[in-house]
Amino acid sequence: MRILGLDPSLGNYGWALHDPEAEGRDRVIERGRFQTKRKNYVYEIDRYTYLRDSLKALIQRLEPDRMGIEHPVFGESYSEGMYGLYLFSLDAIKSCRQDVVLFLPPQVKKFANDILQRPKGWKMMKPDMVEAAKDDTGGKGRWDHNEADAYHVARAAGRFWDFYDGRLEEEALSEYESRAFTFVKTWKRGRKAGQTKKTGIIHKENEKFFIFSKENDDG
User: Fold this and answer.
1) pTM of this prediction?
2) 3-214: CATH superfamily
């Protein structure tokens, strides 16, 4: 299965195509970035449409089996602009009828730390993300950190879709993967005692993952 991971950014939009069944450097089939500069666009909307159309063309060329994308956190730097880019990206993905799972930036960092096994409390920075990508793909080559983030999105997405499809049992997930994918919270005390909230991604179809492959022409 070929998984396309995306790390949306207006300046350096990272992407990586991952093969979960391969070994070493063959695990990353192809990677790259869409690069734009604000000064090159009279209208800001044209920058967004360029990135959307570039992503759509990439999907059509690579023909991935499934996808993953990092989505923005409100309250972070330029969150409105990044959310706009995320929506334009989702439009391209939906138009290509690709199934996609969403990950928050902190989740992507924790998935990457599953590779490096840094000490508890370690803050994963750009060099760590690059190192983790290298470690998972044979340790060679020069990586841009946007491409490394996209690779980790693709790798985590591959794990999620294998779990979703039943090819990967919950017992085979890492501790953090299990929490991110399946977590169910049940309150034992207080006013919410006895109530249950399912927060794992697997319980959040049309919120944390989308099965766009089932869309019809009017969908």
Assistant:
1) 0.91
2) Ribonuclease H-like superfamily/Ribonuclease H (3.30.420.10)
